[in-house]
Write a structure and sequence with these properties.
Layout lengths: L1 H17 L9 E4 L10 H12 L23 H16 L5 H8 L2 H15 L9 H8 L8 H10 L5 E3 L5 H18 L10 H4 L2 E3 L14 E3 L5 H12 L6 E5 L5 H6 L2 E5 L3 H9 L3 E4 L14 E5 L12
Parallel strand pairs: 1-2, 1-5, 2-3, 3-4, 5-6, 6-8, 7-8
Helix pairs in contact: 2-6, 3-5
Bound molecules: 2-acetamido-2-deoxy-beta-D-glucopyranose (NAG) (6 copies).
Length: about 325
């Protein structure tokens, strides 16, 4: 993993030097969805949509989101999932360093926790009750982080339409959230310079698909991929970078994103919580606020992760 890292950084340096001095090479961008593009953990909103759609006598799983549907008086499913992560951590061993945190996030132990959750939800029989109306209602309640569409359009103008790599749970759901949000964005900005670009459709999405039927229109950029961990994201990132001469940039927000963040040519945490930031620094992670002067990334020693509260500070990556 470290070897790949060093290689991609030197590629970045070479291509940046080779480019004319006004325009450094625009990176290929890979982005997490929940918590990074969306301010919300949208998987919980998706789960709420499933509970809303399912007739009460057909509900076979405790609610995933403890904040809603607690009237069902069932065991807190999210707490159980978190216990499963803790059990996996204990089995992995004592995690005290940043490197161990990255390694655990890429491990089969950590992967199996999310795979078990996914399989249990997929086989619950509840997903089949979902309707377009209910999905649309929940999609319009998602908050997209500030600057996302400006960032995505700036990247697209430099030939780097961002690719979404997400572990949660449905391509159709993620695409619907993008479509809904981009419509809002466009209605607020009457003079978008590249209005011919349907970027909400152009963004490739690599994700599982838990909805058994095609409820919503598909897009040629949908890519079903059984992704359940940061290690899976690294695999797909490597596959997509084959033959690519550009450097890679990964943007995420959580511990699950550490493997691709560290593996890519550069890694930026957008929307990381203070708790996780404090934890990673205590474990020896080198986290620094992302600034325009952080560019070009080639100056780093390859172990720095940058942080930003939203997407606005990242737009200059594509304006250099
Ligand atoms: C989504 O996130 C935003 C920003 O953190 C928050 O204000 C909003 O209440 C959240 N929406 C839902 C439905 O959780
Ligand atoms: C975990 O590591 C810390 C720091 O090295 C140490 O203080 C602690 O005793 C260890 N715990 C276990 C259960 O090994
Ligand atoms: C927690 O793990 C157990 C054992 O693998 C599994 O049966 C259970 O469904 C898991 N819970 C969740 C919420 O994923
Ligand atoms: C609009 O975006 C597309 C896709 O990136 C690009 O091919 C095209 O050149 C852009 N057009 C303008 C006017 O920027
Ligand atoms: C419209 O375009 C002008 C000129 O490029 C720009 O200054 C202005 O901020 C844009 N308005 C919106 C709402 O984007
Ligand atoms: C692997 C991964 O990203 N799993 C996430 C799926 O969604 C839950 C709920 O938001 C997160 O806690 C997991 O980290």
């Amino acid at each position: 993993m470290l070897g790949y890292k060093v290689l991609s950084f030197s590629l970045w340096a070479v291509s940046a030097n080779a480019a004319c001095k006004h325009r450094s090479t625009a990176p290929e961008v890979f982005v997490d969805f929940d918590g990074t593009i969306a301010a919300n953990e949208t998987i919980l909103m998706f789960a709420d949509a499933v509970y809303t759609a399912t007739p009460p006598d057909k509900i076979t799983l405790p609610p995933l989101n403890p904040k809603t549907f607690n009237n069902l008086k069932k065991r807190n499913f999210l707490a159980e999932y978190q216990e499963n992560i803790t059990l996996a951590q204990e089995e992995y061993g004592n995690i005290t360093t940043f490197e161990e945190e990255v390694d655990f996030a890429a491990s089969d132990l950590r992967r199996s926790v999310d795979a078990v959750l996914y399989d249990r939800v997929a086989s619950s029989g509840m997903i089949e009750y979902l309707t377009v109306d209910i999905l649309e209602k929940y999609a319009s309640a998602v908050t997209i982080r500030d600057g996302w569409w400006d960032f995505a359009l700036a990247a697209a103008r430099r030939g780097s339409v961002p690719t979404i790599l997400t572990n949660n749970f449905s391509i159709q759901w993620v695409r619907l959230v993008l479509r809904t949000s981009y419509q809002d964005y466009q209605s607020g900005y009457s003079n978008i310079t590249n209005s011919t670009l349907d970027i909400d459709e152009a963004i490739p999405i690599y994700c599982s698909e838990i909805i058994g039927t095609q409820l919503l229109p598909s897009s040629p950029t949908d890519h079903e991929f059984s992704s359940h961990s940061g290690g899976d994201k690294v695999d797909i990132l490597h596959r997509l970078m084959i033959g690519q001469t550009k450097p890679s940039l990964y943007v995420g927000n959580s511990l699950n994103d550490l493997p691709p963040l560290v593996d890519a040519g550069a890694g930026i945490l957008v929307g990381i919580t203070d708790d996780v930031q404090t934890q990673l620094k205590a474990e020896g992670g080198d986290l620094r606020p992302f600034k325009q002067s952080s560019l070009p990334f080639s100056e780093g020693d390859g172990e720095v992760l940058y942080t930003a509260a939203d997407w606005n500070p990242l737009i200059p990556i594509f304006e250099k």
